[in-house]
Structure formats: structure tokens, C-alpha cells
Design a protein that fits this description.
The protein is an all-alpha fold. About 65% of the residues lie in helices and about 0% in strands.
Length: about 375
């Protein structure tokens, strides 16, 4: 008897190591973006200002990689297999992020940002919603921090909510679209996304939306997902490598610079920053993904770096924010500045990298291996 796994469908293809590395670079920039949230009074004066655009980069990567891995395999794989595979890949770290979110919320004193105490029953309800990736409605008891987050125990889980929607749309609709129809969808969603940014529907002339159900967050989040995921999928269908050397370093440096740029303008003309966000998301990020997919690592150092960054990128994204909540609480209660707290910020940065690696090796990989054997492996004579 031999074992044939539907999980091997995508695994049999070579991986894009550089794209994995770029995902890790973007995840590291998200950490610094969140660190400097502690010292900002608004999106306008925040350093590492455009870190929120990393999510759009992640969505483009996701569309590209999923299209590459699965587009030609549906004759050997059912929708059920696809959904099981994506759940096994993504959900263990959602669970871990939720657990860490509960622990840090209790350490913080189990209270909202305004000091209102939260009952343990509401914390449990919030935990259950997180575990099933169900958003908490603003103002309800389950929205335990009181600032409108869909996932108040681990804020970045909002992008996984949209990632799941992207996977569902892919399996049910997007993969069936012809290239021409998909191109039309990309153009229309790109126009919608640009309009959202230029006409300041976020209120601050940026695309840092989707994390809440307040105002235009949900439609903004859907536009971000629909454009980015669709253009990634479209590129995977039409991909023809170009000759380029040093793609990881070129694209990696570009990501660092683009996500670090200060807010464009002084806030009085928000369309300026909206234009920057639109250009990055609609034009530059797809180019960087294309460049990253065109090259291969040619030395051991770069290969190891890309693999490490790629391996920790998702765990890092999912485990870092619960500790940011503790950092914010400490900063705000004591009125501290970055100059006073930078050693703690660096400990937070590197500590989360270590934690992400430990979660990957001691939890995520073993759990995924077990779930794959349990739910994806089938016996065949």
C-alpha cells in the first residue's frame, strides 16, 4: 500500500524562495510600523508610516502563489481538499495568536483602553469568535478593547479574515474566470481602490483599512483584497520570467523604503498620500512580485536568508501584536517617548522573531504535519 496525498499537489512544484524572503521582509516592516503606532497621535505623524501597505503586498503574493500552485490541479483535487489544505496551512497560527491574545489581555488587566473592566465571560466570547475568525461588532461586549477592532485580542487577524474570503472566491469563482474577464476584474477593482484612496474614504487619505467594521473599513478591505489577490492570480497565469540579477535585494530594499516613507503631505491634502498608496499597491508592488518571481537565489547565504524569512513570516505576523498591546499600554500609561523606550522596542522586535521561530518549529509545523496526515493523506493501492 502506498500513500498519495492531495497535499502533494502543490508541494511538488518548486517554491519561489525569493518571494518567500520578500514576504518575510514585509513582515519585519509590519513590526516596526506597529512599534511606532505607540508614539503617533494619528496616521499623519507616525514613523514607518506606510507599513499597513504590507497587507496589500501579502495579498498579491497570495494570489500569485495560489494561482501558481493550484490553477492546473483541479482535475486531481476537490474544493473540499483545497479548503482543508488552506485551513491546515493557516488556522493553527490563528489559534496560537488567539491564545497569546487572551494571555496578554489578562496580563494587561482585562480592561478596555479607557480603563473599563471586561468580564471574563466577554473575554471567553471574544476568544471563541477569534478561534472561528468571526468578527466582533463594534460596541458589543466581545469587542473587548473598545476601539472598534474586528479581532481585539489579536488585531492583525483581520487580514486573515479577508485571506479566507480570497481563498473562497478563488475556489468558487476566480479560478473559473477567463484571463480576459480576470483582467477586467483587475482593472475595475484597481479603479475602485484608487478612488477609495484619492477620495479619502478612510478619513486620512490612506489604504490602512479593513481592520474594523466601522465607517468604510469593510468595503475598503474588500477592495484591497479583490484587487491585490486578483492581480496576483492574473500575473501567475501570464508569468514569463525576465532576466534580472539580485532580485531579492532590489525588491527587498524597495519594500523597506516604500513602507518606511513618511506620510505624504501635512494632512490638508489627503489625496496626495492616497495617490502614493494607490501607486504602490496598483503599480509598484505587482512589479516587485514579478521581479522576485523572475530570479532564483544563487548563493547559500541568500538562500538561507530567504528560507528563514519566509518560514517565520506568517508566524511572526500572527504572534507579534498581542505583545504590542502590552507595549502600548506601558507607553501610554507612563507618557513615554521612543527615545526613552528604544531598548524595549528592540527587545520586542527581536523577541518576536525568536518567538515566531519557536512557534514555527515547536507548534505550527508539527500540528500541520499531523493534520495533513489525518485529513489529507489517502491510501491508494
Amino acid at each position: 500500500m502506498s500513500k498519495i496525498s492531495s497535499a502533494t499537489y502543490a508541494d511538488s512544484k518548486p517554491h519561489y524562495e525569493i518571494l518567500n524572503g520578500l514576504r518575510g521582509v514585509a513582515a519585519l516592516m509590519v513590526i516596526w510600523y506597529h512599534v511606532f503606532e505607540a508614539f503617533a497621535t494619528s496616521p499623519i505623524d507616525q514613523r514607518f508610516n506606510h507599513g499597513y501597505l504590507a497587507v496589500d503586498f501579502f495579498f498579491i503574493l497570495s494570489g500569485f502563489v495560489i494561482g501558481y500552485a493550484y490553477d492546473d490541479r483541479w482535475n486531481r483535487m476537490t474544493k473540499k481538499d483545497f479548503f482543508k489544505r488552506r485551513l491546515i496551512r493557516l488556522h493553527p497560527m490563528i489559534v496560537m495568536g488567539t491564545v497569546l491574545g487572551v494571555i496578554t489581555f489578562l496580563i494587561q488587566g482585562s480592561e478596555q483602553w479607557n480603563g473599563t473592566k471586561v468580564s471574563i465571560s466577554m473575554v471567553i466570547l471574544a476568544m471563541i469568535l477569534h478561534l472561528f475568525l468571526i468578527p466582533a461588532a463594534p460596541g458589543t461586549g466581545a469587542e473587548v478593547r473598545g476601539n472598534g477592532e474586528m479581532y481585539p485580542l489579536n488585531g492583525p487577524a483581520w487580514s486573515l479574515f479577508f485571506e479566507y474570503i480570497g481563498n473562497i472566491l478563488y475556489a468558487l469563482i476566480l479560478r473559473k474566470l477567463s484571463t480576459k474577464v480576470l483582467t477586467v476584474l483587475v482593472v475595475l477593482s484597481g479603479m475602485g481602490l484608487a478612488s477609495f484612496a484619492l477620495f479619502n474614504l478612510s478619513g486620512f487619505g490612506h489604504l490602512g483599512v479593513g481592520w474594523s467594521m466601522l465607517d468604510y473599513n469593510l468595503p475598503g478591505g474588500f477592495l484591497r483584497l479583490l484587487f491585490a489577490f486578483s492581480i496576483g492570480l492574473l500575473m501567475s497565469r501570464n508569468f514569463k520570467p525576465i532576466k534580472i540579477k539580485g532580485a531579492f535585494w532590489i525588491s527587498g530594499l524597495a519594500i523597506v523604503v516604500l513602507l518606511s516613507i513618511p506620510y505624504i503631505g501635512n494632512g490638508e491634502s489627503p489625496w496626495m498620500n492616497g495617490l502614493y498608496d494607490a501607486v504602490c499597491t496598483i503599480v509598484i508592488f505587482p512589479i516587485l512580485v514579478y521581479i522576485g518571481a523572475s530570479d532564483r537565489t544563487t548563493n547559500k547565504t541568500t538562500t538561507k536568508m530567504c528560507r528563514f524569512l519566509g518560514d517565520i513570516s506568517y508566524p511572526l505576523y500572527m504572534v507579534h501584536y498581542p505583545f504590542m498591546y502590552l507595549f502600548y499600554s506601558w507607553i501610554w500609561k507612563n507618557g513615554l517617548t521612543f527615545a526613552q523606550t528604544w531598548p524595549v522596542a528592540f527587545v520586542l522586535f527581536f523577541g518576536n522573531i525568536v518567538l515566531a521561530y519557536l512557534c514555527l518549529k515547536l507548534y505550527d509545523e508539527p500540528v500541520r504535519k499531523h493534520l495533513t496526515k489525518r485529513f489529507l493523506l489517502v491510501k491508494k493501492s
